[in-house]
Amino acid sequence: MSALFDFKSFLVTLLFFICTSAYVKMKAPSMVDPYRTGVRGVFWKAARVGERLSPYVSLCCLFMAFHTFWYAGK
User: Fold this and answer.
1) Cα 49 vs. chain centroid, distance in angstroms?
2) Could you please report the per-residue DSSP string of the chain?
3) Cα angle vertex 57, ends 52, 61, to 5°?
4) In the structure, what pLDDT confidence band is assigned to residue 4 with cuts at 50, 70 and 90?
5) What's the burial of 74, exposed, middle or buried (CB within 10 Å: 0-12/13-18/19+)?
6) By the 8 A CB rule, do 19 and 47 touch?
7) Domain extent listing, the chain
8) How does residue 6 score in pLDDT terms, banded at 50, 70 and 90?
9) CA distances in angstroms from 35 to 5, 21, 31, 42, 56, listed in the order given
10) Quick check: 62 and 52 in contact, CB under 8 A?
11) How many whole angstroms from its chain centre is CA 26?
12) 39 near 61, Cβ under 8 Å?
């Protein structure tokens, strides 16, 4: 099943996208430019969310990791 049709998989994909965008902005800031439009603009917005809400994003990542680890087989 596609990650877009399953809500749990969609949330995991969204969290990974936010975390990856923030990491790429930290390592190569020229790739994630706020003045870009289209796909690269979406990367900037996701990186911004990852920077500003990093404690909440990291708690969500930890919760999803524990949930996947213990409840994936059920």
Assistant:
1) 9
2) --TTTSHHHHHHHHHHHHHHHHHHHHH-TTTS-TT--THHHHHHHHHHHHHHTHHHHHHHHHHHHHHHHHHTT-
3) 160
4) low
5) exposed
6) no
7) 7-71
8) confident
9) 31, 16, 11, 11, 26
10) no
11) 14
12) no
What is the tens place of the pLDDT at every residue in 14-64? 888 999 898 888 898 888 888 888 877 898 899 999 888 888 888 888 888
